[in-house]
Write a structure and sequence with these properties.
Radius of gyration: 27 Å
Distance between the termini: 29 Å
Bound molecules: adenosine-5'-triphosphate, magnesium ion
Number of strands: 12
Number of helices: 14
CATH class of the largest domain: Alpha Beta
Oligomer: single chain
Strand order of the largest sheet: 2-3-4-1-5
Strand content: 15-25%
CATH architecture of the largest domain: 3-Layer(aba) Sandwich
CATH topology of the largest domain: Rossmann fold
Structural class: alpha/beta
CATH superfamily of the largest domain: P-loop containing nucleotide triphosphate hydrolases
Helix content: 40-55%
Length: 410
Amino acid sequence: MSYTEFFEFKEHPFRITPDVEYFFASPNHMEALQSLKYFVDSDEGFLVLTGEPGTGKTITMRKFMNELPDTVEYAYVMFPSLEPEEMFRAVLEDFGFPIGENQTKNTLFSGFRDFLTEKKRQGKQPLLIIDEAQNLPERTLEELRILSNLETEKEKLIRFVIAGQPELETKLNSNQLRQLRQRITLYINLDYMSLEDMSKYVAFRLSKGGFHGQYPDRAFYKKLYAYTGGNPRLVNLAMERTLMAAYVDQNKVLTAKHLSSAAASLRLEKEKINMKSKFFLYAGFAILAAVFVAGAIFYYSSLYGKHQAETPAPTAPPVQEKKAEPKTAPVVSNILEEPKTVAPKKGITKANVLNMREQPDITSAVLAKLPLDTHILILLDRDRWMNIRVTVDGKELTGWVYGRNVEVEN
Ligand SMILES: Nc1ncnc2c1ncn2[C@@H]1O[C@H](COP(=O)(O)OP(=O)(O)OP(=O)(O)O)[C@@H](O)[C@H]1O
Ligand SMILES: [Mg+2]
């Protein structure tokens, strides 16, 4: 029996992959989502979304993409550290723009302009969404500005949403990117959740997963907040481990003890040093440590004094008799690191030309170019990429494609 069966979950409720089914509309996330929607309806050129790691940028954008009207034709690129030309090609690929052999950047650029003009003529609004942009070199970010110059006499052909961790803003403030900066009309920042929002978030995920157990109480949430600072990714990790610890304990009530062992196995004390409540945490630890040390000195000195009075012969220092608090809880499982696997299922490609690559990486070698409506077998569905098997010219090949360009057959 697994912990999902024990708690009668339909699925793991605290997966760390950004699954929009589990999107929780906290006031922060809702505001970000509404700003993104406003952006689409407006005439603005660039929107920048920033937030610390794990605050929910990717899941918010996925939710946004899911809710976009059909009139918006978008490409979503999420690759760290691409060179300008690689990024340009990744963008074209995601738009489903056919890239022929040996095409130069200039021909691609003018071809792309025609492609976008045609989209506009059909009443479509092209939108380019770049995630994880904090890792892009400045010269690649500058390339976006060059792409934004694509326009007809009347209007811009494409708009941009750029998301990334706070380093992105630092990059955008550099002198080299001042021209791009001038085009940014909307900034959104995602913050950590408040204690209240985090508590509702956890309860929401538990109930969505079909939890059959006792919901945590306020003291539990306070402790969880102290460990995670309201960072949703850390909350997910801590909750998953807490559920496992409760399962190992065969207890359907999630207790502070389960949470402590989860936090210890995740080394969460160290993580929370990065939180904005850093000062209070340090202060809290310092006070606790001082109280503990003072108490221990008092206790042992009195004990030792008593021992000496009763048995003057030397004994081992009593402090060694005290059992040390275990630093790490037993590791109960490593399932969090495992990719989201699926039983093989059938799919059909939905891009004009879909590159099948050796690795789930835009820079890895292309094994085959799959034409529209190619039948494939999906072996693994991992975040944005799918590991597939396909027969090309009578030969069976295995490789990786963008999941977004695949329609799964039921
Ligand atoms: N509003 C939310 N609703 C549901 N889950 C959320 C929400 N915000 C964050 N999460 C959860 O936290 C995890 C981290 O979110 P996400 O991957 O979107 O963060 P991120 O800001 O893109 O982080 P990074 O900067 O590392 O890419 C997600 O997998 C998701 O499970
Ligand atoms: Mg992200």
